[in-house]
Amino acid sequence: FFRNLRKPKYLEHFHQFDLHFKKHAKEGKLPNYTVIEQRYFELSHLPGNDDHPSHDISEGQKFVKEVYEALRSSPQWHEILFVIVYDEHGGFYDHVPTPVEGVPSPDGIVGPAPYNFNFDRLGVRVPAILVSPWIEPGTVLHEPSGPYPTSQFEHSSIPATVKKIFNLPNFLTNRDEWAGTFDVVLNLKRSGPRTDCPVTLPDPVKLRESGPQEAAQLNDFQEQLVQLAAVMNGDHKKDIYPHKLVQNMTVLEAVKYVELAFETFCSKHEGPPENGLNNAYEDGQADGSTQTASRSFFQRLFSCVICDH
Asked: How far apart are CA 159 and CA 177, in angstroms?
């Protein structure tokens, strides 16, 4: 799936957040399914806003505010389901035990020795926020009612929900077939969408006194992003890949490397490359096409997903 997205034919589905997402939202031209990515590197003029250490978390919350306000002011607001998910819990304790039974392996692949992990359990709970004018005030979701007795809401609930809303033919894996779907949070029996959703959100309070550290060493995730970029410019075939490539690399050097790798990839194909430093969003139909078909109201709900916080 992720390798498929690197194909040149999908380049036109990637856009800069500031230049295009806000414009498309304002004009009511957001596609059916939109994925929003944060800035995972930070520069003096573009601070990281992905909520990862050691970035200023107020920048991450300001980004959520920006996205919400763009959606709230959009003509499409009454058709939107805004999903905010995190991939980490940010703590060391949870009073709810992690489910370890009845969780299917996505594809049956077993991890290497000595652990031979079957990928048949879930991790700790992580935050998830659903926003829509079709959700009743104060709604809290705990566990789904299906499709299986042991089903849970987890990250695979996103593709499961997309499949259900857009009536797609196949699941991606056994895991999203098992996962609960988010459509249950919507009350489509209402006489109309809520009108009391705030138009703007409060400004987050800045918590960090120091500014972005361009000379800092990369964290593990940033190293992986650089290594991913190396696949786009061919450096993955060199002896320096993967570890020597990122050894002692600074944030500023990583930003320049990733940008150049992306430009190299784009230069081989039609169309000018867009600056890869800013936030981005991906658009498209749920099946990867750009055709617009007749849809029910339920199918017109958009999914705007902020991921990898």
From this structure: 9
